[in-house]
Amino acid sequence: MDKTISFTLKVWRQRSPKEKGCFKSYQMKDIPTDTSFLEMLDILNEDLINKGEEPIVFDHDCREGICGMCSLYVNGHPHGPATGATTCQLYMRRFKDGDTITVEPWRSAGFPVIRDLMVDRSAFDKIMQAGGYTSINVGGVPDANAIPISKEKADLAMDAASCIGCGACVAACKNGSAMLFVSAKVSQLALLPQGQVEAARRAKSMLHKMDELGFGNCTNTRACEAECPKCVSISNIARLNREFIAAKLKD
Amino acid sequence: MWLIDSSIGRKVVMSVTGMALILFLTFHMAMNCVALFSEDGYRAICEFLGANWYALVGTVGLAALMVIHFIYAFWLSWQNYKARGSSRYAVTERPKTVEWSSQNMLVIGIIVCIGLFIHLINFWSKMQLVEIMGDKPADGVDLIRNTFSKWYFALVYLVWLFFIWLHLTHGFWSAIQTVGWSSKVWHKRWKVIGNVCITLLILGFASVLVLYFGKSLMA
Ligand code: HEM
Ligand code: SF4
Ligand code: FES
What is the pLDDT of residue B59? Predict the structure, then answer.
């Protein structure tokens, strides 16, 4: 027999961006501990629909930790209490019988609530459109090792590229800063030859877009790094600072 | 101007003024410690600085640094408060790797500022200010002895030093991170270097205070 737990779920309900939201409590009975957190919400929603109530709106897509769609601020942590995992990778075995689990949306001026637990993260798309790409012609596929890239650099670039754009860094930051996200997106290209051509322009325009959209100033609290499901390091923020300052000094 | 209209630029101002203030505190501490070994030596330093042109230039520069640091502190904090949005989390939990001080730099800074005022009234107003006005300044050693023979001043200064320690153990590596001189490995190194340097700095200041408080008990 599977182990099951019963607990109280406190969920943020908000009908629209403008309306005021509030918490609503739901009693969850005999949920198997190998249910994922999102499956648990599915169970609740099915129940709500059967009772003729409005289901809880929340974002999700791949449910395997790669798309960055799931969000949820669970018991004081973006993506819940587990480290290095997204909400869709969170399982009910993390919780105990009789717990009260509080579920909130990302709360940040840059991410307004759309409904219930779903927030508008299109600000990240705008930052990407401001320069998170390469537009140079890199030609055909080069021969292997024609452009030597050290293992160290390749690893750092891959680590930066593991960012899934979920926004947990902003949700965790008391300053509502998006520096971890922006720095990951700048670093993944700045570390490689293809990205270096436009590195200065990219750092400047992505950062200006971030500022323009109303994200805060980073004060190096490290909350982003601690809560990032992909463990993106703040050394990327140091790199972004470096790139940006160098670009500005050159102007 | 990027030092005003970009977030990294504003942080660079915070960082550079902060580092300059740390540098000043280092010199200040070294000069105070002379009093540990030789009261005449300390008097000579007081006299050498006094209200000479170089000391005055230094004082004005220092005041400017402090004012810029202060204004930017409030400006950044206000922007960050707005960026956080109007609705707050019901439940929050600080991750283990996040220092308490890092999230409360403004509050700690304000406390440091209050301490600074007490300190300026106690010492600066009786030394350099008097000299600027054209009078004879008070004797530095006498001031130290009188101030720290009062237990409440000794206590207030110790608390003040503790808050400076809190501000700077985070501020040190944060300032370096802000100007970009950090990496995964160097982050750990800077933190250790910062903790050691700042602790020595604060202990240096505290030792003079403790010595003179102790002397007053013996007397
Ligand atoms: C003894 C005087 C002071 C020194 C040596 C000092 C030093 C520093 C340093 C090194 C930083 C880190 C800069 C960075 O992260 O880029 C910093 C940050 C900060 N300081 Fe000060 N500070 C002093 C006084 C004050 C005062 C009086 C206030 C407040 C009114 C204040 C408020 C702040 C704030 C809000 C930050 C922002 C935290 C951050 O951006 O990392 N400081 N300070
Ligand atoms: S840096 Fe981490 S927390 Fe921030 S968006 Fe990328 S994956 Fe999410
Ligand atoms: S749903 Fe895709 S990462 Fe969680």
Answer: 95
Question: 3-state DSSP call for residue A34?
Answer: coil
| Number of DSSP helices (H) and strands (E) in chain B, helices first | 9, 0
Mean pLDDT, residues A183-202: 95
> In terms of pTM, does the model score above 0.90?
yes
User: Taking CB atoms and an 8 Å cut-off, how many pairs form between chains A and B?
Assistant: 147
The CATH class that applies to domain A122-250 reads mainly alpha
**Which residues, in sequence order, are bridge partners of residue A25?**
A10
- The answer to whether B137 touches B128, Cβ cutoff 8 Å, is yes
Q: What ipTM was assigned to the predicted interfaces of this complex?
A: 0.93
**A66 Cα–ligand 2 center, Å:** 11
Mutate to test the pocket of ligand 3, among A39, A41, A66, A230 (most ligand atoms within 8 A of CB): A66
CATH architecture of B2-86+102-218: Up-down Bundle (1.20)
Rounded distance, CA B209 to CA B158, Å? 8
**Ligand 2 atom closest to the CA of A227, numbered from 1:** 3
Which whole number is the average pLDDT over A226-238? 98
Q: For residue A116, which residues of chain B lie inside 8 Å, CB to CB?
A: none
- Centre of ligand 1 from the C-alpha of residue A85, in Å: 34
In this complex, do A177 and B83 lie within 8 Å of one another by their Cβ atoms?
yes
Q: Where are the domains of chain B?
A: 2-86+102-218
Give residue B9's identity as a one-letter amino acid code: G
CATH of A4-114, one of 1.10.10.10, 3.40.50.2000, 3.10.20.30, 1.10.490.10: 3.10.20.30
Q: Which of B153, B164, B151, B156 is nearest to B202 (CA)?
A: B164
CB A83 within 8 A of CB A52: no
Which of A110, A208, A221 comes nearest B6 by C-beta? Answer: A208
Q: Are A220 and B174 inside 8 Å of each other by CB? A: yes
Domain boundaries, chain A: 4-114, 122-250
- Give the containing element (helix H, strand E) for A142: none
Which residues is A13 bridged to in the sheet? A22
CB contact under 8 A, B179 and A245: yes
> Pocket residues for ligand 3 (CB within 6 Å)?
A 60-63, 65-70, 86-88
pLDDT of B217: 92
Mean pLDDT by 10 residues, chain B (219 residues): 95 98 97 94 92 92 97 97 93 94 96 97 93 89 94 97 98 97 96 98 97 91
Instruction: Assess whether the C-beta atom of A229 lies below 6 angstroms from ligand 2.
Output: yes
| Side chain identity at residue B12, one-letter code | V
d(CA B182, CA A50): 55
Closest CA to B13 of B59, B76, B60, B100: B76
